[in-house]
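protien #1 (seq + structre)
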Amino acid sequence: MTVLRFGRFELDTAQRKLTESGNVLRLGGKAFDILVVLATSAGEVISKETLLAAVWPDTTVEEGALRVHLVTLRKLLGDRTSGRYIENIPGRGYVFVMPVEGSGVESLNQAEAKPQVLQQRFPRLTERLIGRDDFVAETAGLLSTHRLVTISGAGGVGKTSVALAAAEIISAAREVLFVDLASLSDEKQIAPTLASLLGLSVVIDNAEHAVLEALAERDLLLLLDNCEHVISKAAVIVEDILATTRLVTVLATSREPLRIAGERIRQLPSLPVPPEDSPQSSLLKYPAVELFVDRVMLSSELEDFNNPDTLTAAASIVRRLDGIPLAIELAASGVANLGLIHLVGSLSDPLAVLRRGRRTAPPRQQTLRATLDWSFDGLTDKERLLFEYCAMFAGAFSTEAALTLSAGVMAEEDFYEAFDGLFLKSLFSVSGDGKYRLLQTTRSYTLEKVRRGDQAHRLHASHADYCEKALTSATRDWPTLLTADWMRLYSDLIHDIRSAIHWSFESVESEELGMRLAANSKVLWVQLGLMNEQIQVLDEALKRIPGSAHEGTETELDLRISKGSALYHVQGYSKDGDALHEIDRGIEIAKAIGNVSKRIHANAARTAILCSHGRYQDAINATLALRDENPQAPSHVFSAMLEHNYFFNGDLAHARKELEGSLDDGSGSIRRTANPGLGFDQRITGLAVLVFVEFLEGNIATAMDRLEKSVQEAEDLGYSIASCLLLMLSAFPMASLVGRHSQANEYLNKAEGLAKQQRLIRWQQWISSYRNGLSEADNHDALEKALAGLAALRLEYFLIICGARTPTAHVERALQGEAGWCRPELLRLLAVAKFPTNPELAKNIAAEAVALSRKMRAVFWELRCLMTAYELSPRSDQPTIVDDIEAAIAKFEPESKTVDLSAAIELVRSAPCRSDLAPANVSSS
């Protein structure tokens, strides 16, 4: 026999009996099993998964069931009043902390917890849905014949639960996307929220258009929950989705219909309640009574519903609550504290409001308000305080988040006691990822209480402070977490950031906090694809700067850099002037206040914009001057600014030198976006330059192998800006130049998919240029139209892709700029164009191209220019050029393969006699 003793308790595991000072205590089976697992492993942290697997080995249950039984155990053991027994370890599990003595204590075989993998992105019901089976089945069936079904009904009637149950059925065959509109405070946030949930997670210009494109060929059920407060915009978006997609169906919940064409409205009634004269034997057949009994039994095992009086009291309660499920569940949660009979009496005052409401036919919100009044008044002081704090969260929140938010007013021990109490009273709902949220009606009710009280400012200030700390963690974790893991932790934070900024800007007293939140939340807006909204927030902050104490401070500096970055990504080339204006103001402030680090960051953004406009030497000069002014700064921060500008300026040697420091610094994290210039990943940018340097130097095999690995590395990173940069500036052009056109097309398609999905305007413009270069090269008018809008870096890339098909005027235009990296190729193209009318000039230009490529040590360009020089030279000069071609071939890395190299080898092979060479047919394109 195994008997465990702790404190005044004795646990007999063989007889399944718990006694206190000799008195047998009543304890449910599952609670007993949990106690055995914890007590036999006293002092060890037992994870929630291990507990669930040990106590429910053959059944999958939610964490909520475990919490219910743990609360029961704590109350029974007198936890927190007569010594601590069970301790919660945030993020890890539970531990039995009281010393345990006993005979034959053996470790239990803990079944290994099986992690749940959510197949669909929507919350799962944590409790049995009662009285709705037919409604759920009919709703699921209607969705096979109707593209829009709206579940309409009063607040608290259970619309969300019914919709989730229907979605559960449909998820066996189709994808389901759940959108909680309750967390949105502005109808303008609907489309950006949909875009983020669809994975459109970087820069979105027109979110609604992007959503329609993403859904065009998707076969999914879109579940829009709580539409009523954004009903007008929700209706417009749903109508657009139905009009532009073929396979998407929509299930909406709302207190009122969307009122658009094709809508199938399903009015969800309250649960049936027994009439006053119902016979005793029929009471449990009514779903409202069944729901009440079921929920009471979850939180209390002391009520006997076989007793006629108890069952009659239950029927009376649900009748008075009009069968509204939320009201019934709230009432049931009070039974554990008050007892059933006392509960009936405690409802008298609220129900007086309810009865008056029924006589005058008021909205059902009044019924729910009466229930919530009673529920709120029944909370302990600590529960009420914590409930007000949790109402500050605009979306889902974790236990740890609630603990952090309330830490200033509540000890950890008190927090868990209050949190458990609120959970048992059904005031929190649990989502599929283990986070909690308040029902919208409940949250609105509580916020109204807060507004009427005298603690509103303190609560909102605490929430804003929590947001600032959470942003610090999000920024800290961004370089080290995989994108999916980071999103799981921090994507919900955006709702709280919006709420906190909105509150902060309502008064001068708190606006500084709002400004800091606006400036420091860059990583969140970018990754969620909400940079247009970010610009609006930044503008709200910046308009408060002139004449304020924040003018010329670090706060304004951060706001300027953030806005410059957002403008660059969202607005494309047309707004680069505005972006530079913001960044230059940031540099001015950083210099004035002596903030070297942020001055360097702002200059990184500036040099990136200069580079995109072909001002490579200006970018180099500015960076070198900054480095000379700040010798104490780490050299690698300047290397990251210099590497690509040296490359594009044609200085491959200096580019390679700077790459060493940049790549070394960028190798220690998953991503290197700590440089908040324009948010490009330092390592991927460095790799993009390195592979092209290797390529031009003739190390073709090494370059192409490293390129493939870099493309995969960028893809694994899950950061579309980084992938598009590598694909557009290195992968596609390199594959095209060596003649691997199938691979080049794969790279272009991959970039196009990312840019289209994420609405990356800048890279869409690049892709359009490349597409024109490939498909419109023989169409003079179309080519001229495309070239008219190109300049600097984009023009340079376009020309090397199009080759000799490019109109001469545009080659000359590119040569007027600083296109050092491809200048030999541009000169070669100019020589080919001039040859028909001026052979001598063409010959001299080709010779200049060869000389420049040798000076750069760009072997790839050298060979290509020599082949053209051979074609354009008189027969007498060709033997010498063949010798030069043979020497150039020898400079290539072994195993290198390109179209030019193959042609050159064939040319040398077919010219055995240098003194009597026949013209070779070598392409100059």
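ok now protien #2
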Amino acid sequence: MIEEAMVPVEPVFAHADRLFALLDRLVHRPSKGEVPGEVPERDGIPIIQLLGDEQDGLAEQIAGAMHAAQPRSVPQELVDLGQKWDEVVAQRGDPSAPNHLTPDWQRAELCRRLLVQLAGEYSSVSYGHDRSVRFRRLGLVNWFLEMTDTVRLPDSQHGQIVLRRLRARELERRRLFGFMRSPSTEVALQGNVPWWAYLLGLHLLPIIWFRVWRGVGREYRWLLHQPYMAPADPGNFIGFAVRLTQPRWGREDPEQISKLMINAFLADLRDAYRRRPWRRRAYRRTAYCVAFLKGVSEHNGGLEVLRLLAEVRNDTGAFDPLLVVASRPEQEVESVRVRSLTDELGVYDAWCERLRNAAGGRDTDFWFLPVRVPAPLPDDDPGRDAQHERTSVARRLQVSQPPVWAGRTATVVSLVLAVVLIAGGITYGLAKEGEWRWQHCGLSRSDPDARTLQRESTDECIGVAPHGFAFGSTDPRVRQTLSIIARQNEEAERRHAADPGRRLVTLVHLSALLSSPIGETSNTLSYAREQLQGAASAQRRQLDKQGETEPVLRIFPAAAGSGMRFGADVASTVKRMMRTDPTIVGVTGLDQSRKATITTIAALTRVGLPMVATTLSADTLPENSALYYQVSPQNRREAAIAAAYAGHLADQKALDERTVRVVYSLDTTDEYSANLRADAVTAFRQAGFQVDQQGYTPSPAPVGAPSGPGARTIGEQACGYPGLVFFAGRSEDFETVLGATNDTCGTNPPRFLGGDDVARLGADPERRKAFPRVPYEFLDFTVGSASCDGPSDLYSTMKELFPDECRQVQDTSLDGHAALAFDAANLYLKAIARLQDTAPGTPLTPAAVWYALNGIHGSAALDGESGRIDFGGAVGRQVPLDKLISVQRVEGAQRPQQLGFCGRRGSNEGQAWCPPSEAR
């Protein structure tokens, strides 16, 4: 209620609806001729004078109505003459200043500033390029007048200085001359063309052109033929120009100067509105320009400006497409009869009758149409609401649409038809090529990646890029990785061509993100890059093998868009590629356990391709396809290890209470968070913990997500929690939780344990050092202890391929993406090697490779970089048995410390507190 009372009430003026109806008639330009159409062979627009007090509100309403006119705004400018006069007096009225002006010249300066402001508004493109007015004449006159502001005697070289500056002005206004005379272009021309061409092009031609233009340019011809200041004196252009640059020294009449500027202003307006068959832009001007002069008085020179405007109209006898509306107090004696909005004969109709009977004799007062405007109605006036409604309707001004034949469309169509007769086929071909390029991520038809890529509605490039396309990524490390894979693909093809016994095998590595969507940063893409580096390392090692039957491997990077939303489309692209490339036998990668990921798995299943996912962990994924495998553990194992570790903490008295708060995402499409939350609740309860659950809404909130607290609120509410806070969401949301906890209780934070997605945060040294006061632990799919200088197959190869990454390997390896992708590719290679060993000569088809993947168990298990991968224990098992999961602790910017791990790594099966083996 308080806010409503403070809203200013718009003043309501009696009979304002009639005033707006009058303005509507005056700004509306007829389709033929000019106003008033009621008086044949006579035209002209009166100068409206609104007499009364408290008209500021009315001025704003008129300006607003002009701006809101439909279908296009009316060009208009509201000028406070009282304020502008004060500016002139303040800047030029000090008798002790060298630029002091006498009162007569102050009024001339007021006129100049007023016209410049109006010209600046009417030439603005805010009303559309087709309605901006070019003020060539006023611009030239104003440039002369602004050359100097003193009364000093010009020296003998003044005329030449003016001429030289004027020539420079003209050359700068012409783009061609401005380009030719720029320093860089001048040097280039001087060194590449003969001296005579340089002299002619940069010096003689501009001078000749300027001399010609002074004789034929419209503004120059107009300046020497207009009626004010006797332009023929002293008989040449330079002499008149010098007079304009030093008008006070020459004791020029300031009133003549003002009339010259007004005439130039009106002439430019007339030129813009003059209708000619070849000037269609003039036909698109369906409304006259409006100038509202607020606060006009004798004191501030406003009345003199209006008088001079009327005199110029009488002197030229030409129609001016300008409606001037002035507000001023009513004088005791008015020289012209003051009209009322309630007169039986309308205000404008009465003026038109005067125009009809005026014949050729029109004095200055003829152009003035004073209208009495009463004070605003008081708030308790019984007719106020009805008047407000009538005024609101009348303020909806309507201007005519330009004729169809004069519109931009007609002009463009005419030009296009002419061009089509000459080069229609070329234009059509270029347009189709441009459209094709846009649809194929800006690549030409000759680019080998173009036909397997497409741009989606989100402006993301998706598809398959075997030849190094970076999917729009600007990250140099992503681009370098993709380039290395492309080079190794070419090497694989050469080796296969040189030795057909080494069969060619192709894996499609499918990622969600390979370029940043709007608002994302390159940090978000690090996991995709590391997966590709792991796959590239496996490819490199396979290429380096020398066995006669060792296959050579190609990796085809593919992107399915953020959140895997376009995975099914990529599957269709892969299916199309398989028709001409039978070497494609499987898919690795796949990101984020979301509903779109499940859709992608189903689409790849229909294509018939086996899949080995790198980081997916949702329990339900294997249920969607018999062709699906993964090298990472499932959420139920992750939850069991989290519960076992929490029990270990409780036994060590590291927790105040045996309670757990499971924090999860309310995003209904996030299968990972929902599944991990359910598994965690079950596992913690079985371990004897009291469990409460707390959901949060990610930012930005997904469509359809239920309402709930944000991640920041979760972080604040975690303060003082006596048990363990288990985070089952995404790393970017966990970062927000840590920030809130750091701000609220950084000196005494709760104990956090994050799921495997938090490893992305823990692996980034720049991001993790932001919260030195809030230590946390997270579950990781690697042991995080590899080194480029150690015996690791992966990192010793990365040292060769990506030496820059090796300097950060202890950080980048922690999230496990490189190791998991390395193991996924090697899993395929091991299956293919066993297939060739047991059934030599068997065609390497997707079905055969899938069958071989089933045999990776027991003594044939893969001892990978991320731990042992064994699909034994049950027939058709698709998830590794007892897959390794480690617990890492982060304290500020220090390298995360491993607190233990569960799972098989060589002969070590983990810590004593780990849950029982899945094989039992």
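The longest strand covers residues 897-905.
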